[in-house]
Amino acid sequence: MSKDRQVETRIKWLETLEKFRLDFDGPGSEKYWSPELDTISRDQLRVVQNEKIKAVAPFLYENSPFYRRRFDRLGLAPTDISSVDDLAKWPVVDKSEMMEDAAANPPYGTYSTMDSELWQQRGWMMFSSSGTTGVPRVCRYSQIDREYWSWANARALYAMGMRSNDTMFICSGYGPHVFAWGVQYALEKMGMGMIPGGGMNSRARADIIDRFKPTVLTCTPSYALHLGRVMQGKGLNPAASSIRLVFVGGEPASGIPNTRKRIEELWGAKLVEFYGCTEASPHSGGYSCTSSAEDETSITTHLMEDIQVWELIDPYNNQTVRSGERGLTVCTNLNSESSPQLRFLVGDYTVFNHDICSCGRSHVRAVGAFSGRVDDLINLRGIKMYPTQIEEAVRAVEGIGDEYEVVIITDDAGLDLMNIRVEHADAEVADKVALEIQTRCEVRVNVEVLPLGVLAKTEFKANRIKDLR
How many domains does the chain have? Predict the structure, then answer.
């Protein structure tokens, strides 16, 4: 490994990133932040992607020991991966590979292109994956990453209809998680006001909304429900508040019709969301647009393809699925100095639509948004289901509380059982909840009905599945 070669490939990669940084410092039109990129043709989009891939492959080889070992192990040279079509030669990178690398090379692993020397020169912030399984993957990002992050997220927030005359209330903890920080720096680029709500309790946050009238609420979907109920408990009506957009991330929401409906009715506002992961930042990944929820059949999530290549693969053979088929998300990240990735398995199920959206954006969209990570798959007596299916079933019962809990145990006879604890004023709804779950998940469960307000309230990201087997 030559130091000169490392520097040379980094310079080439950063020059390529800069070449396609259009409408960076402000919106290019009333409708689009980056009109040329947001409405780019599929042919031109492929040109951009190919040029970036041609520059990023040698950059990864020279600057990431993890990637260099993988290239060598596969018998590939960086020049073998020079276009989107060449990505098929590169097996998907599973999270377990990164976890093994981090364990063998603590504390940061070697999958990043950010080493200690670069961190001292222009380090910005360290983030950690928030996944529910395995060892968290740590990623250090540079000041250059921060610039690209704020630009990409500004494009996404602009697509949601946010403008400089809005004020966002960020009800999120400012820990080592990408969501709140990426949003904050995007707001700075947009010249949009914000109220940081970290460290406040829910009653204080309710008072902030009532007194200072922010127009956008930012939090997890679970917390949006909880905060709305706190406002009602104080005699305030969230649906009559100043909030016009409920902007969520961290958990599935728009793709769960009953959850989306519940939040929008509670707040009298439109729900919009970000989708993404720590490893394939700096960018939200996916985002809602102003046209994506005009009716129940048009829920889609945009993916910004000039800075990321998105694929769907079959979970059983890792082969790319045909257009219109359901598969797991795979991301080739082309927007970072510190964490570019080749075919990283993000791992959410969806279906892609490549038609131009009614908002005018030409990038691929996830139909029905996303239904949950493959890591979260529940296998109960051979029947497989996702937490989102359980959530949709629970919320389908009228009058059910916002909180619920799923406990999975193994009984004395060795049989796995699922117990659902819900809140409702009428204990007789247990059969209705059980039927809704059996209809959607094809499994029989035990349902316990508790009085309203008994279960612990979700302050941030919900963890409702307790697998005690």
Answer: 2
